[in-house]
Specification:
The chain has 99 residues and is mostly helical. 49% of the residues lie in helices and 4% in strands.
Length: 99
């Protein structure tokens, strides 16, 4: 299940690695302010992840999507009453740019 277009490429990071990366960044000399990219070595789309996983597992995996427009419309209605929904909408809009 994916929100928005499954063909937009992004870099991902394993959740279990985030704490290690953060600890390393805190102790690293001379990294005050610069961006540290902790994502995969190349951007991939959710569609590519499904294809690779399907190949490894020996069966087709289809990505089901919730259209970004539907989420944006729901956020427009609920967002003014819920800061969390407004923030989630902003995040999803950014993800859809592939940035």
């Amino acid at each position: 299940m994916w929100v928005g277009s499954p063909t937009i490429s992004l870099t991902y990071v394993f959740t279990s690695d985030v704490a290690d990366y953060l600890a390393d960044a805190v102790d690293a000399p001379g990294v005050d302010g610069p961006r540290i990219d902790i994502g995969w070595d190349r951007p991939v789309s959710m569609q590519e992840i499904a294809q690779i996983s399907g190949r490894l597992l020996g069966h087709e995996i289809r990505v089901r999507t919730i259209p970004a427009g539907l989420i944006n419309a729901a956020a427009a209605v609920v967002g003014p009453f819920s800061p969390m929904v407004k923030d989630m909408d902003a995040m999803l809009r950014w993800v859809q740019t592939g940035g």
